[in-house]
Amino acid sequence: QIQLIQFGASLFLSIPYYIGFHYKMGATPGKRMFKIVVKDYQTGGSISLGQSVGRYLGTMLSALTFGIGYLMVAFHPKKRALHEVLSNTVSLIAEPKQTSIVDPALRSEF
Asked: Residue 19 pLDDT > 80, yes or no?
């Protein structure tokens, strides 16, 4: 009975964490630390709520198959895990934002 309560509490915390952060922020805090973002595979844009849910369910499926869904990265031509293929998403290293030292409004034209 305690295991069932622990499992329920785990889902209660993990569902909003993973689905919410991927949908709203494009990455969990851990991914953001390593400058990894999750994008739509086709457009390169932000993922939808449905994709975020699909991604979460895909990670559960990967865990239930003893990690085979994660191992798939080693053999997939585009290095995508099962949860990425199922949800049509991709994890990428974020490109650094371009910042200018000089304010463009202060630049003089030659």
From this structure: yes
pTM for the predicted model, two decimal places: 0.78
Average pLDDT over residues 35-42: 96
Q: Please report, to the nearest 10 degrees, the dihedral formed by the alpha carbons of residues 72, 85, 28, 15 taken in order.
A: -100
Residue spans of alpha helices (H) in the chain: 2-24, 29-33, 49-64, 68-71, 82-87
Spatial separation of the C-alpha atoms in residues 64 and 105, rounded to whole Å:
56
Contact 52, 19 (CB under 8 A): yes
Q: Six-digit token pair at 68?
A: 């085979």
Angle subtended at Cα 46 by Cα 69 and Cα 89, rounded to the nearest 5 degrees: 20
**10 to 17, 23, 48, 72: CA distances (angstroms):** 11, 20, 24, 26
- Fill in the amino acid letter for 5: I
